[in-house]
Amino acid sequence: MEFLGKTMVHECLKQEMSADPWIPIPEEIRELYIQAGRPRPLYRARRLEKYLKLKKVRLYYKREDLSPTGSHKVNTALAQAYYAAKEGKTALVTETGAGQWGSALAYAASIMGLKCVVFWVRAVYDWKTERRTLIKLLGAEVHASPSKETNIGRTLLTQNSNHQGSLGIAVSEGLEYAEKHGDSVYCLGSVLNHVLIHQSVIGLETIKQFELADDDPDLIVGCLGGGSNFGGLALPFAGEVLQKKRECEFLASQSQAAPNLVEGEYRYDFGDVAEHTPLLKMYTLGHKTDMVPIKADGLRYHAAAPLISALRHHNIVKAVAYPADEKAIFEAAKIFLQTEGWLIAPESSYAVRAGIDEALKAEKAGQEKVICMNISGHGFLDLVAYKEKLGL
Amino acid sequence: MEFLGKTMVHECLKQEMSADPWIPIPEEIRELYIQAGRPRPLYRARRLEKYLKLKKVRLYYKREDLSPTGSHKVNTALAQAYYAAKEGKTALVTETGAGQWGSALAYAASIMGLKCVVFWVRAVYDWKTERRTLIKLLGAEVHASPSKETNIGRTLLTQNSNHQGSLGIAVSEGLEYAEKHGDSVYCLGSVLNHVLIHQSVIGLETIKQFELADDDPDLIVGCLGGGSNFGGLALPFAGEVLQKKRECEFLASQSQAAPNLVEGEYRYDFGDVAEHTPLLKMYTLGHKTDMVPIKADGLRYHAAAPLISALRHHNIVKAVAYPADEKAIFEAAKIFLQTEGWLIAPESSYAVRAGIDEALKAEKAGQEKVICMNISGHGFLDLVAYKEKLGL
N or C: which terminal CB in chain A sees fewer CB atoms within 10 Å? Predict the structure, then answer.
């Protein structure tokens, strides 16, 4: 705890441990959300419904892709940047794998006038040149990890000057950097309670939007790696389910490359390979599990957030895992683009895939059903993956 | 006219010649606009104002970047696709240079269930692999031009099997293809009256949004190549200026690579190199002028739309041209990203550059001024240009 107190935002730690049912969103953060394009629209997928010949099933989707850096990650990045600035910190430090979280934090730092330092797994840093340009353009300092900025980085580079890095190493570097620079804090982009709390703005908005549409979802579908976009949409609805204010089911769509909710064990585990984090009670595949590469890199995580894992344990959240070749996933993304017109991230395509499958199942059973899918991000920086997977 | 009648959408030709002050937008097109994210927001650039230390000047920007294919081009693409389908056509044919227009038309065709054939200048087709993937993903047939699909293409390829093509050649191929396939029509993405009429939805929305904001622009700024995004925002305001219902100035921001409004002659000229189009009265640099390459490829056009040229001739529209090295342009885009948080297209950065310059000028003169800039597109597919121009 002393280490955490030194390296993390205090308000975030307080929220992490809070038992309060509601934590107010400060006026300043709400203004930052407006600047970032909130509220984001909820769409009825009428053209997709028509394509699928649905008569009894209605499909909706929430547009988190309409975000400055292309994903829902900005929701927590802005909150963390705001609290860090308020606590007198001048720099935000983090690790990133796929790069979505690194760019979201770089954006938030830029908007708040803070410095940002990103340690980016070298294996990804080297080829994602466009997202790297975006992070630099946002004014952040970005290092391929392992880097020469830290002791652990220097040690690893001595052993192998072309070390490809890992998320665990990048976390270690970030924490070492944050500990050594008293004016900086370490920020996390998923899994933890405070991150999911910040993301819950997605679901809070969606509840109001369904009221305006005079409709109600029977099923919430989202993709799930660590759980931040899924939790963001699902938790406010789940809260009302637990209070018996509404009936609604929840389905997490995963990859068989990392089916933590489907095949994981519910037990205490570390959040990172290097065992820096506290132990968290989660559905986990084991923090040292190797996972095959997939294009939806944001879903490649060994465990699901404690909040989601608890809901899974009580059978409130269900889960499905799709084959790691991702053929069905990219096919769903293509159908979505050609009907609804929006190019979505590979990760979000898991939500659409599961949404389509559930819709067809209900339709076949003659069951009336309203399904809401979360579109966690856009695919403008993922066209290389589309080209490869669909042979274009 | 016979040739045009055979290859173009009749409703568009009718609108092209119309003297009606108002042409209603059919309900179906309005629904397509909603699907494509309209109305698009008008933002007050408070953070940019603060960065520029503005006290007397207020800055606004219209968000045409929040578009399925990343630019305002979808506004006319959807209208043209709708009318084509209504006239029983089953395929839309076009040329594209930078690729924005080709992807917008591919999107509209996909949404309307039509076939789409794009002839894309080979010099650009070869390196813009990601936009090419997007066009294919939208289900369009895309050919590097010159292609083997047409007589003129085959002839040119016999002379040089690696012919790099030009916009003029691509237009010729498209027209030949459309003429030979009776079920198809040729669609244009800028310059013509009906295109600017379709784009005027931008300005019509913006007038209402300024009413809601209880403010009024003194200056409208947009980038200008052929004039479709500029006209889209400016024309509804200009109409009210001509009717003496409001006072407002208009500034077109151009590149010195193609300063048609700044240095062009006001006379009849062709719209294309190959002299296929009717003669149009425009400010023109001459339809055979060579233009140096710039990153804001959408601004590289030899003449300004007849409607904009007429307003320039009557001194209602003014124009400025920035150096072709684009340093000042990308610097403005970076400032915009780091303050407002949105990554904009190189073309749109000309509007922001001119908006910033005009704001600083007014501020220095102690003049109160409200400036509205048009953000015609996003920059997620232009990060390579950002990297090169800003040395990231």
Answer: N
- Is the Cβ of A133 closer than 8 Å to some Cβ of chain B? yes
Break chain B into its structural domains and give their ranges: 27-70+200-390, 72-186
Interface of A with B in 62-81 (CB under 8 A): 66, 68, 70
B138, A387 contact by CB (below 8 A): no
Q: Do the chains contact at B133 and A386, CB–CB below 8 Å?
A: yes
pLDDT at A2: 67
Among residues B225, B182, B228, which one has the least CA distance to residue B72? B228
Structural contact between residues A62 and A233, judged by C-beta atoms closer than 8 angstroms: yes
Decide: residue A328, CB within 10 A, 0-12 exposed, 13-18 middle, 19+ buried. middle
Q: Give the separation between CA A124 and CA A303, rounded to whole angstroms.
A: 21
Residues of chain B with C-beta less than 8 angstroms from the C-beta of A383: 129-131, 133-134, 137, 381
First to last CA, chain B: 51
Q: Do A130 and B383 touch (CB under 8 A)?
A: yes
Asked if A301 contacts A190 with a C-beta cutoff of 8 angstroms, the reply is: yes
Q: What is the ipTM of this complex?
A: 0.96
B66 interaction partners in chain A (CB closer than 8 Å):
37, 66
In chain A, residues with a C-beta closer than 8 Å to the C-beta of B138 are 337-338
Query: A47–B35: do the CB atoms touch at under 8 Å?
Result: yes
Mean pLDDT, chain B cut into blocks of 10 residues (392 residues total): 80 96 97 97 97 98 97 98 97 94 98 96 91 97 96 95 89 92 94 97 98 98 97 98 97 97 97 84 94 92 97 98 98 98 98 98 98 98 96 92
In sequence order, which ranges of chain B are alpha helices (DSSP H)? 2-7, 10-17, 27-35, 46-51, 74-86, 100-112, 122-125, 129-137, 151-159, 167-180, 193-199, 201-212, 228-242, 260-263, 306-313, 327-340, 346-364, 383-390
A338 near B CB under 8 A: yes
Residue B131's CB: how many other CB atoms inside 10 A? 25
Whether residues A110 and B387 touch (CB distance < 8 A) is answered with no
- Whether B72-186 and B27-70+200-390 are alike in CATH topology: the answer is yes
* Beta carbons of B343 and A383 less than 8 Å apart: no
- Decide yes or no: CATH 3.30.360.10 for domain B72-186: no
Interface contact B44, partner A, CB < 8 A: no
Residue B60: count of CB within 10 angstroms of its CB? 22
Structural tokens at position A2: 């002393």
Assess contact for A368 and A214: CB atoms under 8 A: no
Q: Name, in order, each residue with C-beta under 8 angstroms of B83's C-beta and a sequence gap of 6 or more.
A: B9, B10, B11, B12
Residue A95: phi, psi to the nearest 5?
A: -110, 160
pLDDT (average), residues A359-364: 98
Looking at the domain covering A27-70+200-390, what would its CATH class be? alpha beta
- Chain B contacts of A337, Cβ < 8 Å? 110, 137-138
8 Å CB contact of B111 and A343: no
User: Helices A346-364 & A327-340, crossing angle to 10 degrees?
Assistant: 80
Chain A residue closest to B386 (CA)?
A133
d(CA A100, CA B249): 41
Give pairs for B2-8: CB < 8 Å, separation 24+. B3/B175, B3/B179, B4/B278, B6/B179, B7/B175, B7/B178, B7/B179, B7/B185, B7/B186, B8/B185, B8/B186, B8/B187
Bridge partners, residue B199, by sequence: none
State the Cα–Cα distance between residues A280 and A283, nearest whole angstrom: 10
CB contact under 8 A, A386 and B129: no
> B225 vs B268, B284, B301, B304, CA distance in Å?
17, 11, 5, 7
Determine contact: A105 vs chain B, CB below 8 A: no
Minimal CA separation from B285 to chain A, in Å: 35
Whose CA is closest to A299, among A354, A341, A343? Answer: A354
